[in-house]
């Protein structure tokens, strides 16, 4: 069963089973500012992106709320994350401010395999089409890039 999620600016992530309140589970730690929560296709892992200087991308076990791993920063430096999501089973898209970049991350090697960098401002939203086209916003511009991955 997939549980609805809610995030707050107050460093907590909540999941709600149907017809039960308050939250069923709580993940403390992420500093979520934007569309920076994603559940993988299998429903077993949650990706969070945080607007902070370290441990900005983290994967959590959905069933227990235990942290599985921190995703390493890009070698170009860290970004404070506004948007992230799983892309298929093997990739992650993440974008943010400070370094103003959007990364395609390979989950198997935990490294960036594609990057939109030197953008004029922070990346506040991303979306992937069914054909693998990445749309990313920075300032007043929408950037489109073809990825080698389909959702």
Throw out a few tags for this protein.
single chain, mainly beta, Methylamine Dehydrogenase, Chain H, four-stranded antiparallel beta sheet
Please tell me about this protein's structure:
0% of the residues lie in helices and 49% in strands. Strands 4-5-6-7 form a 4-stranded antiparallel beta sheet, with no helix packed on it. The chain has a 4-stranded antiparallel beta sheet with strand order 8-9-10-11, with no helix packed on it. Strands 1-2-3 form a 3-stranded antiparallel beta sheet, with no helix packed on it. The protein has one domain: YVTN repeat-like/Quinoprotein amine dehydrogenase (Methylamine Dehydrogenase, Chain H), CATH 2.130.10.10. The chain is globular and about 40 Å long. With 151 residues, the protein is an all-beta fold.
What can be said about this structure in brief?
Residues 1-22 form the signal peptide. The protein has 151 residues and is mainly β. The protein has strands spanning 5-8, 12-15, 25-28, 37-39, 45-49, 57-61, 67-71, 80-87, 91-97, 102-106, 111-116, 123-128, 133-138, 141-146.
